[in-house]
Amino acid sequence: EVQVVESGGDLVQPGGSLRLSCVASGFTVSGTYMSWVRQTPGKGLEWVSVIYNTGDGSPYYADSVKGRFTISRDNSKNAVYLQMNSLRTEDTAVYYCAACVAVTGGYFDYWGQGALLTVSS
Amino acid sequence: IQMTQSPSSVSASVGDRVTITCRASQGISGWLAWYQQKQGKAPKLLIYAASSLQSGVPSRFSGSGSGTDFTLTISSLQPEDFATYYCQQANSFPYTFGQGTKLEIK
Fold it and tell me: Residues A2-20: what's their mean pLDDT?
């Protein structure tokens, strides 16, 4: 069964750091696009970052997180991570890990349940 | 690329036909997806590549469009369809979502 499970959400002070984890089962993270998408409470969806399965797997980031967030992949653990530094109150959101498994081209057909990050003093 | 959905909310009855529109600020060919999200749940992929129905999604959902203008149509609303719908462009990074359309029961 294909599954994506996030973990690591927490309450963090402004300026702090946190790492979210996303463990996949039923497919290999090295074989597909893996992304993080966030949703501010009561608001819409914002794409955050992607790591590719092709070439050198160069990541891409939303302008709002560029230079502060880093996406990475551990093929041995079949996991993807989001390292978040210099956190701001506006980073408060539910963070979803999303994968393009059976559908190619940047369309996310599998999502995790979400991990809540709260940035507050 | 900015994605603009309309309307922001719509009230409809079971059995109604509903159309939601998504407009891209520049051409994205057919690189568009539609998602359904219910309260407290992750989004669910309904349509990809503008008009391809995701496996397991009922055929009452359909998508059309190309370039800058796209539509999602639900041919006959069912009780389980009341949710929020988002479009997403996959033409270029950064990927972007529309602001959402909340479909409510009339």
Answer: 97
